[in-house]
Amino acid sequence: MSTSTTELGLAETTLLRFATAGSVDDGKSTLVGRLLHDSKSVLADQLEAVERASASRGQDAPDLALLTDGLRAEREQGITIDVAYRYFATPKRRFILADTPGHVQYTRNMVTGASTAELTVVLVDARNGVVEQTRRHAAIAALLRVPHVVLAVNKMDLVGYQESIFAGIAEEFTAYATELGVPEVTAIPISALVGDNVVEPSANMDWYGGPTVLEHLETVPVSHDLAHCHARLPVQYVIRPQTAEHPDYRGYAGQIAAGTFHVGEAVTVLPSGRTSTISGIDLLGKPVDTAWTTQSVTVLLADDIDISRGDLIVPTKDAPATTQDVEATVCHVADQPLTVGHRVLLKHGTRTVKAVVKDIPSRLTLDDLSLHPHPGQLVANDIGRVKIRTAEPLPVDSYADSRRTGSFILIDPADGTTLTAGMVGESFASPEPVKDETEDDGWDF
Predict the structure, then answer these.
(1) Segments in 181-286 forming alpha helices (H)
(2) Closest Cα partner for 200 from 62, 40, 1?
(3) What local confidence, expressed as pLDDT, does residue 45 receive?
């Protein structure tokens, strides 16, 4: 089996993962509902259910926000609480959409929705302009290295479709996002309620000559150059049937996190550093010569070496360094604070190790992007820098190089609660190096 990189790239560009974000009542769910409705992606029974729910609330027209606000509490309060995933397609592209909450209490959920997104739509109410939550969402998009950001200035119908209002908001947001390091911002004036510039061009804003939201989603370049990714295979399971048919079979199963693997390629197993050569790759029970990102495969090696769940198979010529000292930018997602000296479990890929938070050098202030030095702790929704010491060496990439193998989560060892989402390496606003003045006397490693 041989497949060219060009063919792989073309296959990948048919799918776009994107997320929506914005403050409460900015109209995210209405935008998503309008997008689904006007692109003919809503089934008849779904629309009938929305019409009945809208009528029961005394509304004359269907409330398209109900297409995504599926929880009872969401419908009763008129807000989005959980991340709602929607799948739809047009003749030009398939989409996976994560509709994330806008309330500051649920900002942590945006990290989940945007962590795999290739594009984020940030909504702004034209009447309110850029607010703190807008800046927070822009910061998270930059932190997660989302390559494309769309600024959707919503409710233009409530400000008389004035170009000056749109231009002012677009200029302020773009300047802020650029300072964060966001590589691309596309500003689009819309009215999700009416449908202006969502799927169809607006007749009310002839001063705007750019794409509609759907047109941009269908045409934004989404390139995955698999040939130049750092190839990484986290081992999830060791397969040893020990049957009469397969007495000596030893395979290492997992989902390829990045890059491409080939039969005959020299590989290194981390963190042990042992080396071997790929003697075979099984995909869906059949042997193949090549396997690439997101495929679940079983790799066979020429040598019998000690490999277990949590190990990482990488090309010998492109192996990351292993370290016990991890510096990262994090978004704290738990209600309980993260403090200096906190004992945690660090989950990286399929490997989980004990760790200690050695230092919190800074916390980011979103208003002016200043760094508050040595805050001592991070509370829910805080973004900051941390230094972590792990009990065992970890083969980590920089998040800027690999979103899959450059990310991790911190877990409370007492109850398994997810505490923090981390991105290894430099962030959009790196603090000055801070010297460790004391050593923790807890888990000493």
Answers:
(1) 213-219
(2) 40
(3) 59
Collect the ranges in the chain with pLDDT lower than 70: 1-13, 42-83, 102-108, 223-228, 367, 428-445
Q: How far apart are CA 358 and CA 150, in angstroms?
A: 37
Q: In sequence order, what are the beta bridge partners of 422?
A: 330, 408
Rounded-to-integer distance, Cα 349 and Cα 364, Å: 27
Tell me the HSE value of 239 on the side-chain side, using a 13 A CA sphere.
Answer: 16
Two structure tokens written together for 40: 């003919």
**How large is the angle between the packed helices 132-143 and 107-114, nearest 10 degrees?**
30
pLDDT score for 412: 95
Segment holding 372, helix H or strand E: strand 370-373
User: Helices H, strands E: what count in the chain?
Assistant: 8, 25
| Whole-prediction pTM | 0.78
d(CA 283, CA 300): 11
pLDDT at 77: 44
> CB-based contacts of 242: which residues, under 8 Å, 6+ apart?
249
